[in-house]
Amino acid sequence: MNQAPFAIKATFGSYRGALKFSLEAMNRLRQTYSAHPHIRQIAAELVRGLPDRDYGVQADALYRYVRDNIRYIHDIDNVETIQTPLETLRVMGGDCDCQVVLLSALASSIGMVHRFAMISDSSDGTWTHIYVQFLVNGRWMDADPIAPHGQPFGQGPTSGQRRAFYEFD
Questions:
Q1: Could you tell me where the DSSP H helices lie in the chain?
Q2: C-alpha angle with apex 67: 53 to 40, nearest 5 degrees?
Q3: How far is CA 70 from CA 41, 132, 153, in A?
């Protein structure tokens, strides 16, 4: 596998262009790194010993790993920065989109159905946060990796006037 840059950095003149670029970049990183042996190894180790096909328990294990071990670190000043999952693991930190890419790559590496979820608590409708939702027994369950330590799987952000979802092909 070719070594990808450690992060995607971009500045934008329009919010709409930035959002589209960011979501597409996050999805590409999720797809690319879900096939990386180190990502799959971590995911396999996290679910080892858990009940087969208990996707709620397995999703919770992935979620707790990212939530409890990856520190929240802001982007570079005035630059949207989306790290690769390997870079997020190397520095053990990243903002919400970096942590979502890591959690999503881990989930994709073991075939878990999930999607990106965005919220807006801004009066102008700007999307202000992104997290992951897992499909468990026909129901979407929230997994916000930057949630406070101890927040249970399935309990999502409490703020947000609007929600939108980015589902993978």
A1: 15-34, 37-47, 55-69, 85-91, 96-109
A2: 50
A3: 17, 15, 16
Q: In a 10 Å sphere around its CB, with 0-12 CB exposed, 13-18 middle and 19+ buried, how is residue 128 labelled?
A: middle
Structure pTM? 0.90
Q: Spell out the residues 6+ positions from residue 164 whose beta carbon is closer than 8 angstroms to its own.
A: 117, 118, 120, 127
Domains of the chain, first to last:
7-166 (3.10.620.30)
φ and ψ at residue 135, rounded to 5 degrees: -90, 115
Residue range 93-114, pLDDT digits in tens: 999 999 999 999 999 999 999 9
Residue 20 and residue 118: Cα distance in Å, rounded? 13
Amino acid at 114: H
Coil, strand or helix at 113: coil
